[in-house]
Amino acid sequence: MVIFLIMIIIPSIVVLSFIMRKARQSAIEKSMTLVDAKTQELKIQEHKDHYETEAVLGQNSQTLNLYRRIDASFILKIGLAIMLTVLGIVVSQLMGWELAGSDYVVVGIISLVITIVLPSTLRAMYVKKRVKKLTAELPWMIDLLAVSIQCGMTPEQAFKFLATKMSGINPDFVPFLQRLVRRTEMSGLSNALYHFSREIPSTETRLFCAMLEQSLQYGSSLYEQLMELSREIREIQLLATEENIGKLSAKMSVPLILFFMFPVVIIVAAPGIMRVFSNG
């Protein structure tokens, strides 16, 4: 039986992987086929920035590297699909479920779909979660940068100092800051800030980089500008939190209607309805 399942699952994995690869290539080609050349260039840059962000985050995350390795390896996907199928069969035997031949095929197909879809989904979710966490903790980095500049450091020295000290707040900041320092040494701070804003894609990061570059260009007080920006970013995050809290009441109304109002209506109306039917 296991050999039969393997003979079914492996060709299915090959066919579905080929179809998924062709669909992905078609989607990429479609996204690249744009009328405006500037829009096409921005689209390509977004793909590059996404992979750069993922690669930088992978320097401190074994979990993300595991997701990437599974998603990129066809052999690992086959092995994982077979393991999930065997595990499903073992669980069904332990639970005493009687499965027919078609049920085994369904278990194999479900395992195949999970193996193909889950790694890429987990990668995207992991990167999005980490970027969101970095954005939430960006005001702490700005505060430390402002204090370092107030102590007499240049912005380049302050970033180099933060690259060695930010691990206590969020280790994911360290590789991004190290890349910023290396780019600053090679091509200047302005170019490094541009790439930093693209590698951590968020409104707060773009505001930080634009403000810092403008302050350096026009010679305004960096300490005061950074502290003001830190306060504004915290206010933006607080407003976003309040907005989510405001949406929570509307979301809670759905389960309240389904699991509270309808049962109460039934309990209140049931005696009267029963009397009507009994009198009739």
From TrEMBL:
The chain crosses the membrane at residues 6-23, 74-92, 104-126, 256-277. Coiled coil: none annotated. It holds the Pfam family T2SSF. Keywords: Cell membrane, Membrane, Transmembrane, Transmembrane helix. It is a multi-pass membrane protein. Signal peptide: none annotated. It comes from the Bacteria. InterPro entries: T2SS_GspF_dom (IPR018076). Residues 142-268 form the Type II secretion system protein GspF domain. PANTHER family: INTEGRAL MEMBRANE PROTEIN-RELATED (PTHR35007), PILUS ASSEMBLE PROTEIN (PTHR35007:SF2). This is Type II secretion system F family protein.
